[in-house]
Amino acid sequence: DHNERLEFLGDSVLGLAVAHMLYHALEDLPEGDLSRVRAQLVRQDSLHRLALDVGLPELMRLGEGELRSGGRTRPSILADGLEAVIGAVYLDAGFETAAALVQRLFDTVEITPALSSAAKDAKTSLQEWLQGRKMQLPHYEVKDVLGAAPRQTFEVACRVVELGLETIGQGPSRRAAEQA
């Protein structure tokens, strides 16, 4: 009924298979950059796209509540579902087969050193930029929460005091709004 344990296992298998793939594909990249590329490839957005590419939404069995709330297209559910499939393949056929599946999933993804810089999220980039100039870290504050769960929209303010700047981001979660 629930695939959380398979998802847990699949997440680890996916991480190892992608690390192995990157180790050989990007031989000259240092460890920190390899870690950023791996994070870019195994994050929710990337897995969501891969799940859509392989037609996973049509194959998933969801509860009535999830179906009514759009669960079949929700990125987090599809990413978790793909990890669960990888975990199931690992249990059924072993690491080599699961790693081959991961390789096939990423066949259409162009894996280059440039993914390392793209892997830095907006908050990390801003923090590094400020720290490089010996400035204080930004301050984030939830300004508003619009709508009812599970379809809420968060508004978060990001303030850089030393520069006198403030901007507002919106997203379906506090974290997404901070990134925006």
Q: How do the SSEs run, as a string of H and E?
A: HHHHHHHHHEEEH
How big is the Rg?
19 Å
Strand content: 5-15%
Distance between the termini: 35 Å
Mean pLDDT: 89
Instruction: Characterize the overall form.
Output: flat
Strand order of the largest sheet: 1-2-3
Helicity range: 55-70%
Total beta strand runs: 3
How many helices does DSSP assign? 10
Structural class: alpha+beta
Model description:
By secondary structure, the chain is α+β, with helices and mostly antiparallel strands. It has 10 helices and 3 strands. A 3-stranded antiparallel sheet has the order 1-2-3. Strand 1 (139-146) and strand 2 form a beta hairpin.
Briefly, what is this?
With 180 residues, the protein is of the alpha+beta class. It contains ten helices and three strands.
What key phrases describe this protein's structure?
single chain, 180 residues, alpha+beta, 58% helix, flat
